[in-house]
Structure to design on (262 residues):
C-alpha cells in the first residue's frame, strides 16, 4: 500500500475508534430529530383531548373584520365562508375557543369566539309569548306566538335579497315576512303596503318579539321586517345584501318608520 493510502486508512480507523462515522445504512445516520419547540405548528394529533361542547342558543354580532367560518370545529379546517363585521349570526353551540353558528343552508359552521359578541337575545325561547288572536279577514289569526315567529326568522339569516323573491334562494322584504308567518300558519298579503293593513296597530314603546314593522321611503309603505326585541329587527335588505338584523334606533330607520302591526 503506498503512503497516501496508508495515511487515509489510518485516519478512517481513527474516526471509527472515536465513533465519528456511521454507515449510511445505519438508522443512526438519519438527521437529528427536531426539538418540540422547533416543530412546525399544525392541527392537533390523534389522541389529543377534544373540548366538550356546550349550548349557547343566542344571537351574536360579528366583531372582527371578515371573520372566517370553518367547516369543522378547528381553525385548521377548510374555510367555507367569511362574515363581515357588524353582521348577526345565530350562535348554537360552543367547543373550546370556537362557536358553532347556523349557516344560511342550515348547516353548522364554526367561528372563533373572539370574533363574536354574544347578545342576551335567545334564538330558541323556552316558551312562546301568546298574544290574542285577531281575525280581520279570512277567519285566520294574524298573530299567535311572537317568539315562535322570531325563531323561524333566524333560520333565514344570510339568505340573499332578490326583488320579488319568495324562496330560500332569494327573498325580498315582504316575501321574507310573508314566508316566515306562513310557516306558523298565518297568511299575509304579498306586498308590504297590503300587509300593513292587516292586524292591529302597536306603538313603538309597546313592541314585542314577532310584531311586524313597516317603513316608507316613497309614496306608500315599501319595506317591512320583524321585531326581535332589544330595539332590533330582522328583515331582507336590498342595501344590506339579504336577510340581516339591524338596530331600529338608528336614525335611518327612525326616519322611515311608519308603524307596527300585531
Amino acid at each position: 500500500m503506498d503512503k497516501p493510502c496508508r495515511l487515509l486508512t489510518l485516519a478512517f480507523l481513527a474516526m471509527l475508534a472515536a465513533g465519528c462515522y456511521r454507515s449510511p445504512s445505519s438508522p443512526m445516520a438519519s438527521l437529528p430529530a427536531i426539538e418540540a419547540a422547533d416543530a412546525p405548528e399544525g392541527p392537533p394529533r390523534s389522541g389529543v383531548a377534544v373540548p366538550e361542547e356546550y349550548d349557547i342558543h343566542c344571537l351574536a354580532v360579528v366583531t372582527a373584520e371578515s371573520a372566517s367560518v370553518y367547516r369543522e370545529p378547528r381553525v385548521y379546517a377548510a374555510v367555507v365562508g367569511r362574515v363581515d363585521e357588524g353582521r348577526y349570526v345565530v350562535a348554537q353551540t360552543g367547543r373550546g375557543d370556537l362557536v358553532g353558528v347556523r349557516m344560511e343552508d342550515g348547516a353548522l359552521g364554526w367561528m372563533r369566539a373572539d370574533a363574536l359578541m354574544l347578545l342576551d337575545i335567545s334564538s330558541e325561547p323556552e316558551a312562546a309569548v301568546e298574544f290574542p288572536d285577531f281575525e280581520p279577514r279570512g277567519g285566520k289569526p294574524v298573530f299567535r306566538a311572537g317568539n315562535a315567529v322570531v325563531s323561524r326568522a333566524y333560520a333565514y339569516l344570510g339568505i340573499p335579497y332578490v326583488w320579488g323573491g319568495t324562496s330560500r334562494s332569494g327573498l325580498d322584504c315582504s316575501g321574507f315576512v310573508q314566508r316566515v308567518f306562513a310557516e306558523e300558519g298565518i297568511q299575509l298579503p304579498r306586498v308590504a303596503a297590503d300587509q300593513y293593513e292587516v292586524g292591529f296597530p302597536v306603538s313603538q314603546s309597546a313592541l314585542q318579539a314577532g310584531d311586524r314593522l313597516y317603513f316608507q321611503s316613497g309614496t306608500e309603505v315599501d319595506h317591512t321586517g320583524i321585531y326581535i326585541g332589544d330595539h332590533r329587527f330582522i328583515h331582507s335588505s336590498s342595501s344590506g345584501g339579504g336577510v340581516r338584523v339591524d338596530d331600529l334606533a338608528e336614525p335611518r330607520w327612525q326616519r322611515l318608520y311608519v308603524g307596527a302591526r300585531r
Summary: The first strand starts at residue 53 and ends at 62. The CA atoms of residues 58 and 122 lie 4 Å apart. The chain has five helices and 15 strands. The chain has two domains: 53-122, 146-261.
